[in-house]
Design goal:
single chain; about 500 residues; alpha+beta; six-stranded antiparallel β-sheet; six-stranded mixed β-sheet
Length: about 500
């Protein structure tokens, strides 16, 4: 009887707990629904207030002159005399570094003010298809979402914002945010996608600018609307100094117009809650459809067994061509890190790294680095950016593999990528006035030659532009006492 009583008691408790659990689950579901409703109401109210402010908060601003791209001294490449190859490297003393540039902090991408809900529809939703750097993309966009601006008055723009803030545009916004994640779009890539999307949906006019501004704002980004000469202009806020583009200083933030020709305009200076500035840092390339370029054969002169055939993605290179040159923290030394820290495209890495790994197999780290260094020194043709492009232009690694000419910064960025990916070694960029090289840490090895010391680690100089020179040799005319170091991600 005692056992039956205990069993009965346990069943009673379990039944009571289950009922209580179901009740709590139901309460939690109600709480989530209410919280979601409050979130939605918060966003609705934020947009209502924003639209209301648009009727009044316009001021005239004058653009600040564009900051030109830095122009360094012209330091030509140097070919190491063959007789010097036989001169043994001396054991040098560590070089004190007066300026170390830390890796830029990568902040999380902005998020909408509140989660954007999927809006159920009774009929099949229509979509708009477009191409983004050769990649087929589509978003949900119904005919009812199209609008026309009867002018650019405060009231017209305010009414348009209120219309877009309705549920009809939420699925479009969700699709854009989903594309940002799925295609691994940086902030710059996302803004470019939104501009392409808006033109596909609304045509090439003020309506497309308005739609871009709305989706960009609702995605969590800092933006302002401006008008000048009877047209609408989007301004995006950024903490980066973007070269060769005029900007508007509004409340201590630099806003760059999507139209570089604007010099004076009326701007609606209204902040949306939790807005975040556009970052030009990028840790991965966007996922774009592949369009292969012609195969290029690359081979080391001193080590002819070190060779590869590569083809790059034209769509990705076209995107890289659009990427703005910039610096962070008002420090000109930061301008190369974004290029060097972006990993190699997976397909390009497969074509390039597979044969190189086989060719380097069995070598110690120093010997492998010697071969990679000569590969970068001799497989590519040197030419000045000013002659080829008309201005300084750093390359992402794939661009150096594609274009027929490159300079010291391009070679150093590529070499740093090869050493980190193939050998797993830490690399830093070393800046001399007018010249960029690298230095590599060989842990557990004492490598002869010139080196710098950072946090107890010995980084041996490797110069991809000192043609024919091996690991540990500084290019003639370079003063390691005046060098600056740019730290890179592994």
């Amino acid at each position: 009887m005692k056992h039956l009583f205990l069993i009965s008691l346990c069943l009673s408790i379990a039944s009571s707990s289950l009922a209580q659990g179901n009740g709590l689950k139901q309460q939690y579901g109600q709480f989530r629904q209410q919280a979601g409703d409050r979130y939605a109401e918060f966003r609705v109210e934020a947009n209502r207030r924003y639209a209301e402010f648009m009727k009044h908060a316009w001021q005239t601003f004058t653009a600040s002159s564009a900051i030109p791209r830095p122009k360094d001294e012209t330091v030509p490449p140097v070919v190491m005399p063959k007789e010097e190859h036989r001169v043994p490297l001396r054991e040098s003393s560590p070089v004190p570094i007066r300026d170390i540039v830390e890796p830029p902090v990568l902040t999380p991408q902005p998020l909408p003010l509140v989660p954007i809900r999927e809006v159920p529809v009774t009929e099949e939703e229509k979509s708009v298809a477009f191409r983004f750097y050769g990649t087929d993309v589509k978003v949900r966009f119904d005919d009812d979402c199209r609008f026309r601006l009867s002018g650019l008055s405060n009231d017209v723009l305010s009414s348009a914002w209120e219309k877009m803030a309705g549920e009809a545009y939420d699925n479009l916004l969700r699709d854009c945010l989903e594309l940002r994640v799925r295609m691994e779009l940086s902030d710059w890539a996302y803004l470019s996608l939104l501009q392409t999307m808006a033109e596909a949906c609304m045509g090439n006019g003020d309506e497309a600018v308005m739609l871009t501004a709305y989706v960009y704002c609702q995605s969590g980004y800092r933006m302002r609307l401006g008008r000048t000469d009877g047209r609408l202009v989007l301004l995006y806020g950024s903490n980066h100094t973007i070269y060769s583009r005029p900007f508007f200083d509004i409340g201590g933030t630099r806003y760059y117009p999507t139209d570089d020709n604007v010099r004076r305009m009326e701007v609606c200076d209204v902040a949306f809650p939790k807005e975040q500035s556009l970052s030009l840092q990028m840790r991965r390339q966007p996922k774009l459809a592949r369009e292969e370029t012609p195969v290029r054969k690359l081979q080391s002169e001193r080590y002819p067994e070190i060779k590869a055939e590569v083809s790059v993605n034209k769509n990705l290179n076209d995107f890289y061509d659009s990427y703005p040159a910039s610096e962070t923290d008002r420090n000109v030394m930061t301008r190369w890190a974004v290029y060097a820290n972006v990993p190699m495209d997976e397909e390009v890495a497969r074509m390039l790294y597979t044969p190189l790994r086989e060719q380097l197999a069995g070598l110690d780290k120093k010997e492998a680095a010697e071969r990679l260094l000569n590969f970068v020194q001799t497989a590519f043709v040197y030419e000045y950016d000013e002659k080829v492009w008309g201005h300084d232009r750093a390359f992402f690694a794939e661009e150096t593999l594609h274009y027929p000419y490159c300079d010291c910064e391009d070679r150093s960025i590529l070499f740093s990528r090869l050493v980190r990916d193939l050998l797993g070694l830490d690399v830093v960029l070393v800046y001399y006035p007018g010249h960029l090289a690298t230095a590599v840490c060989f842990p557990g090895e004492t490598v002869a030659g010139d080196y710098i010391e950072l946090s107890g680690c010995r980084f041996t100089v490797c110069d991809p532009t000192y043609i024919g020179a091996g690991v540990g040799r500084t290019m003639s005319g370079m003063d390691n006492q005046a060098a600056r170091v740019i730290l890179l991600d592994r």
